[in-house]
Amino acid sequence: RTPGSDYAPDPRLLAPFRRSSRTLGEFAGVAHWGATMAPFTLGDRTFAMKQGMVTANFFDVLGARPLLGSFFHRDDEETAFAPLGVDGGTARRKIVLAYDAWRKQLGGDSSVIGKQVVDPATKWTYTIVGVAPPGLAYPAGVDFWLPMRGGWKATTSVFVVGRLAPGATLAGARAEYVAFTQRADPNYKITGAHAATFTETVVGDVRPVLRILTAAVALL
User: Fold this and answer.
1) How far apart are CA 151 and CA 140, in angstroms?
2) pLDDT of 133-173, one tens digit each?
3) Would you say 144 and 100 are in contact if contact means Cβ atoms under 8 Å apart?
4) How confident is the model at residue 52 (pLDDT cuts 50, 70, 90)?
5) How many C-alpha atoms does 206 have within 13 Å on its Cβ side?
6) Among residues 127, 149, 143, which one has the least CA distance to residue 36?
7) Which of 177, 158, 161, 176 minimizes the C-alpha distance to 212?
C-alpha cells in the first residue's frame, strides 16, 4: 500500500479475527462510510435523517440500553431488506433512532415505537423499534441505525468498535490485528493499524461507554 493510505477491511476477513483475538472481547462492525443522508416521510411530513449501518450486536458491545423499545437482534442482519423492488416484509426492516433525532424530528413522542417511516425513493417502509439513550451518536452525526445486511458475512467494509480484553492494551490490539491480517491476506502489505479509545473517536457525552475502544482498522 502507498504510505499513509487507509483501508477498511471486508468483515468476512474480520470474522475469523473476531473468533481468535486475545486482545479484544466481543466487537461490532460499523459501515466505513459513516453517517449518510436519507429522506423519509411520516404521514404528510417529509424530512431527512442521517443513517448509520451496524452489525446487530453494536449496542450490546457498547453496553447501551434503549431509552424506548428495543435494539436489533442477530436475525435482523439476515432479514434486514426485502428483495430489490419488493415491498413485502415491512416488519423486517427496522431502525433505531438516535436520541437527538427522536427529539428534533419526532418531538420526543413516547409512542413512537412501532410507527413506520417510508423511504420515498424505494417506497420501502421501516418500523421504528427503539430509541437510543442520550449521548450515543456514532458514527458522528447519525440520526438512526439500520442493521447491516449479512452482518459479518457482508461485503460492506467496516470499522470495528470493541472492548479490550482484561489486561490488553491498544498497542497489543494493533499488533495482533496487523499480524493476523498479514497472515490472512499478505497482498495488502499492511504495516500498521489505527486504534483509539471511544472517547477519542466520538464527540459528545459518552461516559457510559468510556471503556470501549475503537479498533478502527483503517490501516496505514
Assistant:
1) 21
2) 998 888 989 999 999 888 878 888 888 888 888 888 888 98
3) no
4) very high
5) 21
6) 143
7) 161
Q: Where are the alpha helices (DSSP H) in 81-197?
A: 99-106, 170-184
96 CB-near residues (< 8 Å, 6+ apart): 59, 66, 69, 71, 72, 128, 129, 130, 131, 132, 144, 145
Residue 24 contacts residue 158 (beta carbons within 8 Å): no
Q: How far apart are CA 11 and CA 45, in angstroms?
A: 37
Specify which residues 51 forms β-bridges with. Answer: 36, 144
Whether the per-residue pLDDT at 130 is higher than 60: the answer is yes
Q: Which three cell numbers stand for residue 15?
A: 470474522
pTM for the whole structure? 0.82
Place of cell 495482533: 176
For residues 73 and 75, what is the distance between their CA atoms, to the nearest angstrom? 6
CB 50 within 8 A of CB 36: yes
pLDDT at 177 over 90: no
Q: Rounded to whole angstroms, how far apart are CA atoms 100 and 210?
A: 20
Q: Is 114 exposed, middle or buried (0-12, 13-18, 19+ CB in 10 A)?
A: exposed
The predicted pLDDT at position 107 comes to 92
Which residue type, as a one-letter code, is found at position 154? A
Whether residue 51 is predicted with pLDDT greater than 90 in this model: the reply is yes
